[in-house]
Amino acid sequence: MSFAANGSKPDAVGTVVAGGGQAGFQVAASLRQGGYSDSITIISQEPRLPYQRPPLSKTYIKTDAAFDSLLLKPDSFFEKNAIAYRPAETVDAIDREAGFVALSSGERLPFDHLVLAVGASNRVLPIEGRDLAGVHQLRTAEDAESLRAGLTDASTIAVAGGGFIGLEVAAALRAIGKEVTVVEAANRLMGRTVSQEVSRFFLEEHRKMGTDIRLGTAVSAILGRERVRAVTLSDGSEVAADLVLIAAGVLPNDGLARDGGLATDNGILVDHHMRTEDPRIFAIGDCAAFHSPFAERTVRLESVQNAVDQAKLVAASIIAGEDTAAIAPYRAVPWFWSDQGPFKLQIVGMTAGADHVEMAALGEGGKLVAYCFRGDKLLGIETVNRPGEHMLGRRILAEDLVIARSEVAAEDFDLKAHLAALKNRG
After folding, report:
1. Residue 191 needs a FRET pair 20 to 30 A away by CA distance; which of 79, 92, 353, 391 works?
2. pLDDT for 260-289, tens place per residue?
3. What residues pair up with 51 in beta bridges, in sequence order?
4. The pairing of beta strand 368-374 with beta strand 356-359
5. For strand 212-215 and strand 179-184, is the pairing parallel, antiparallel, or unpaired?
6. Which CATH number is correct for 342-425, 3.30.390.30, 3.40.50.2300, 3.30.465.60, 3.40.50.740?
7. With the C-alpha atoms ordered 294, 298, 304, 309, is the resulting torsion angle positive or negative?
8. Could you give the angle at which helices 387-398 and 415-425 cross, rounded to 10 degrees?
9. Which sign, positive or negative, has the C-alpha torsion 77, 41, 270, 328?
10. Start and end of every FAD/NAD(P)-binding domain (predicted)?
11. Whole-structure pTM over 0.85, yes or no?
């Protein structure tokens, strides 16, 4: 595989992007689309071109899909747009005073602007047996391909973690006939992400799919000699497993920034334009911690939408240079999705702080809508197989439209009609 050089002189100064995932790719693409003419170099730890991660835990692990189907753009895109893409390399240090980054190859690369799009890494569980053959994690395409290959001779799978990734994988493996046990330390699924009502719905549906869900317990050890044969749980029980997936969440890759003297707190701290305390250095995507007007606190979001929107904002800021007055602060409405078997969960807003949930639009075939409030303020909407309400929810939050709990609680409440009435009143 070849990667394009940008034709610039070796000592050319421009924008360096640390990270070749969705966020890093998007900032480079948006810079060129916006007319940026200086050099752009992406330094990517991964050995491949930038690709989509969401399919890894869904269709990719249960099919023989080729890797190229995941690519964000082919090699020719980088050549045509004069973007230097350097795979299998890392930024190891930032010298802010001299204005360069030190690469794992030993090279020093100068920058006018540095974008940290270094993402996150899987949380490592300190449990016995995690290095046995048959124990997997899932973050990269290589991880997915290793997992897919391991499934050939595996029939019983234990998944440590009942979040999005764990449940997506569980549903995908049940669809191809594997016996799956999901072990979740909390007392409900997706506890940090969705309301209790939606969590309860997915618990019931996964059990209907035939998945064994164990709540309120954790994997305490992985058993086997050379290869995994079972896991023991903190409640003392043992679950047979010839393959284990550890899906215990992620931690932000903020060490590079911290070592470079930049502020971090569960991520790289940035302002409303994604700038760190050094105005030449930005952070975006899974590694960036910023104040969200929707959560009313500092958050770090792990979503494609967040990565893309922040990347576009940073590209606009770099192009604007010192004339940043016209660049609006980051206020993109957060939204997320998770495909679990036949159910598409979509979330708009930050619903984790809700103290009241109105289930206002139940339907046949596993369709539901949950309006999540804190007091009388709508924080967001969680939907299952109801894309229409999800899209309307994005509009509500983007336009700061007010919907009261009492209105949603009405038996005949219709969101589309309600928004039309608001528009007519306006």
Report:
1. 391
2. 999 999 999 999 999 999 999 999 999 999
3. 71
4. antiparallel
5. parallel
6. 3.30.390.30
7. positive
8. 30
9. negative
10. 16-311
11. yes
